[in-house]
Amino acid sequence: MGLAMFDLWHKIKQNLFLKPQPGFTGGIVHHHQFKVTAGLPIVACPLPDVLMHPIKQHIGEPCEPIVQVGDRVLRGQVLAKAQGYLSVPVHASTSGVVARIEEHTIPHPSGLGLTTIFIHSDGLDEADESLYPMPNYRSIDVVELRERIRHAGIVGLGGAVFPTFVKLVQDQKHRVDTVILNGIECEPWLTCDHQLMNEKSHEVITGLDIILYLVGAEKGIIAIEDNKPDAIKIMQTTLLDMGMDKYIEVQVLPTRYPQGGEKQLIQAITGKEVPAGGLPMHIGVVSLNVGTSKAIYDAVCLGEPLTERIVTVSGDAAPSPVNMSVRLGTSMHFLLAQVGIQSLDGIKLIHGGPMMGELLGHDDIPVVKGTNGILAMRETTVLSAHHAESPCIRCGDCGEVCPAGLMPNLLAAHCKEHQFERAEDYNLFDCIECGACSYVCPSHIPLVHYFRYGKGQVAQIQREKAFAEASRLRSEKREARLAKERAEKEEKRRIAKAKKEARAKALAEKQAAEAEAMNMQAKSASETENTDNTTQKRKPEETA
Amino acid sequence: MIFLSSPHQHGGNTIQLTMLSVIIALIPAAMVSVYLYGWLAFFLLTTCIGVSLLTEYWLLRWMGKSTQPVWDGSAGLTGLLLALTLPAAVPWWMAVFAAVFAITLGKQLYGGLGYNPFNPALAARIVLLISFPLHMTTWIVPMHMGATLNMYDFVTSLQFFFLGPDAVKQTWDAMTMASPLGYLKTELGQGTTVSQALLDYHYSTLHAFIGRESGSLGESSALALLMGGIWLMARHTISWHIPISYIATVAVFAWVFNMINPDVYAPPLFHVLAGGLILCAFFMATDPVSSPSSSVGKVVFGIGCGVLTWVIRTFGAYPEGAMFAVVLMNMATPLIDYYIRPRVYGYKRGKKA
Amino acid sequence: MELLYPILIFAVLALLIGLGLGLASHYFHVEGDPLADKVDALLPQTQCGQCGYPGCRPYADAVAAGEVDINHCIPGGERTMLEIADVMGVEPKAIEEEETAPVVAYIREDECIGCTLCIKACPVDCIIGAPKQYHTIIADHCTGCALCLEPCPVDCIDMVETPELLEHWSWPVPGTKRANKAESRKASHGVSHV
User: Fold this and answer.
1) CA-CA distance, A189 to B9, in Å (whole number)?
2) Does A459 touch chain C (CB under 8 A)?
């Protein structure tokens, strides 16, 4: 009831312009945020014996391994190089020997795997020193800085894992004037960004300064939700200490999910919307996660590529939940053992947060760049959120909470009935899959699942149509080729036949001529025979 | 193991909770009806609710489907709403017929909950009105308002409900009185002015508000209905768009025309408090299955209901137009949902994918 | 007499409207694709012959002419059948055969004798080879029609299931069971617990 009153009051405030703060449409307020690890200091996870590095931990092309089994590698050494433009390299998280390179499960809902490079740690943790620190970044060329960020393997650490260097350009047509650091962390259970801001505020802010320099912007905003009062205070104090409070400010936003979604955050802070099919850059904004900012600091000022990140290991089945600083490639099993979980009986693992994270089938899976949390949830808890589906009562609650302004109930109905063109017409591909609609649905319809199914089907249909079209062209080409061959054969036969006929004709003529000649000779011979007796005697010889 | 997609957390809202909260919101109105009509109201309420639940149960069993939906509260809610729209003098067989019709032809025929195009209670009520117009427009004098015979005690009510007025040895004339809307319509037809008619009727706005006027079971007390309705809006079970736009439209139309000619057109407050408007606005029009899903669509729906209600009341043959208005707009819901969609993030209003 | 006028009016109206319709159907006539082209565009172009016709285009022609049912295309499956039903304006009809997983052909090169018989048989020219040289199948182009299996004199061609690619994976419809690939993968690689 109190929640509803808060909702109503917030709406009245917004509509009456009492507090002219641009917000975003829709959104939900979780009944319980479960931030049990908030305020707990970051603990360093011990170094495991085996580290597993999949060749693709980002959006874009997979990397290509450049090491071989038996090679000794150092911490921060490139294991697999980037392929193409949208790609960043993968580094070893500690020193050791490459044990094997083979397919292994990755944190993906399908349960499928990718080529993974296994490193057996030698315990020395020797670092690769090839990247030199650049603490005076403002005197370095932006191109070189951008290249450093790319080479360090930095991707969006909020979970989207988009290669960061792509965003950090200066486009003449689209000037960026504001950089937003996303410290919102609206998912329940997760507190890794929160703790990062508490403990590494200096690094985060320096990273922001680097970003400002790279994109040529003058104003920085650090967005934090109001459920993190300690982080807000610490960031504000650090800004003052660093003397950067003139052009960077902390903006506090009311706790609401999915405030941390890039599009929603930009709308909430600037009041402007990212145009459909466009980028935040087109409205002069660039937004990055606080963890990414710290990784940029590490790469630029310390010369350290991305080899570790903060992971919240929590969940209602974890005896001692904690925020850990984890080397990339650590097995989930090892991580869970650190919080007291040895067996997965009656436990379901969620990679990420409960709203957008995915269930994992087992724990022999490595921590990757996008792992912001591992939740060990009791099976009953997870299954209680997945009741049997009832028919849609068209209450419209889903549409009210949708931050993208869609009508989820109609969309899901179209996807279910395979009306994918209709679904696209209802803006299926503008769904950000935040899960707010499924959260509020009284009929327990798995709306996001239907959208994902629909999107997958549309992609598959397009692929199949393209393949069918290509097959048809190949088939037609083949028909044409065969027809051409037949035609050529026909032509050859015709020419051969014509030649043969011509030759036959010539032969016939020659024979006719010969026969003619012989007849004439025979005639003349018979004439001379009548006048001469000796020729008669010679007749039989002539005829012979 | 089944593929389960995120989100893996749920807000806890269920269909049962939704239905239950609407039923709770209707309790004040049901209590007022018992206050006004005694045991008669009680029998009517129990018959409608009971028959609805039983009909749904047997129907689902007969169709070979799971009888789980009986427990989600929607059949009970339909029965309760139906009872609140009926006059108190309805005999038992009409109540049973209405409940059976509402569940079978109003709901299960289309596939059950979530598929009915019309509000089932209203659909049944309309069928009753058209089939048995006399019964459905006869309003008996409530208790505490000068009813000559105490026919609201247990035994008399039982006799009346099952055996009709003859059993209570009372003539219809002594028992009946006109509802405000009905009286106004007849008087206006005869050329009396609005103010004169209301005066003759001893109409009091206060009485209309707290519930001392005659009408169907749930119509009388605007206060009780508003209590429930506002609680529902605060609890976010229904959104404010339909009730507010519905009532506001009726009020605006009534006010404008009342300014033009106060003798022929009734004042806005009268319209708002009279008949089943508040009941329909908060509980019937807001039925989620038959109303649009988007907020703007809901406002359009509410405005459409408002216009139709006022038009039917003023120019139509029936004194009360709310139920017809809502069912007519129910027909337009798919159209509204198709053409009126919320604006999608990143697009200008009006442009789609 | 009174009846005459209405009759005349209606007759004239009918004539005018009929004329209008006729003119409209002539001047506003929309030139559409021939039906066979439309149907052919919906078929998967496997050229397998399972429909009983030698290729997709002949089947499309037959369907457009109404000579054959719309449920004969097996690689196309239910989706293609529904699309054809939509375009032809007929009732959908269930496919009788079971839909199988997509397959591609694979030549066991050690056994290949280089006879080029399969190359000649392939309707989309996706087999590379030359006389007395190994033949191989371009898996990306193979439509899975299996027409190359019969001509092979040493029976060295198999139809194998296409491996599930991560970039092509998509969520199944809600309620589908997980094939437990995760578990099988773990089992095949042993437990690398640390």
Assistant:
1) 11
2) yes
Print the domain residue range for C113.
Answer: 103-163
Q: Which residues in B lie closer than 8 A to residue C172 (C-beta atoms)? A: 3
C-alpha B277/C-alpha B270 separation (Å) is: 11
C9, part of any domain: no
Per-residue pLDDT at B214: 77
C146 is a domain residue: yes
Asked, for residue C17, whether it belongs to a domain, the answer is: no
Q: Where are the domains of chain B?
A: 17-334
pLDDT at C74: 79
What's the CA dihedral at B104, B105, B109, B111 to 10 degrees? Answer: -80
Q: What is the ipTM of this complex?
A: 0.88
pTM attached to this predicted model: 0.85
Q: Mean pLDDT for each 10-residue chunk of chain A (544 residues)? A: 54 49 80 90 94 94 94 94 94 95 92 93 91 91 94 94 93 91 94 95 95 93 94 95 93 92 93 90 94 96 95 93 95 94 92 94 93 94 91 91 93 92 92 94 95 94 89 88 92 91 90 88 77 53 46
Closest to A411 in 3D by CA, of C175, A403, A398, A27: A398
**Nearest beta carbon to residue A393 from set B111, B234, B289:** B289
3-state secondary structure of C36: helix
Class level of CATH domain A153-304: alpha beta
Together in a domain, C117 and C151? yes
Pick from A183, A175, A405: nearest CA to A287: A183
Chains that touch C (3 or more CB pairs under 8 A): A, B
The CATH number of the domain holding residue C149 is 3.30.70.20
Cβ–Cβ gap B3/C172 under 8 Å = yes
Tell me the fold of B17-334: Ammonium transporter fold (1.10.3430)
Q: How far apart, in whole angstroms, are the C-alpha atoms of residue B38 and residue B41?
A: 6
Q: Where are the domains of chain A?
A: 153-304
In a domain, C121, yes or no: yes
Enumerate the residues of chain C whose CB falls inside 8 A of the CB of residue A481. Answer: 125
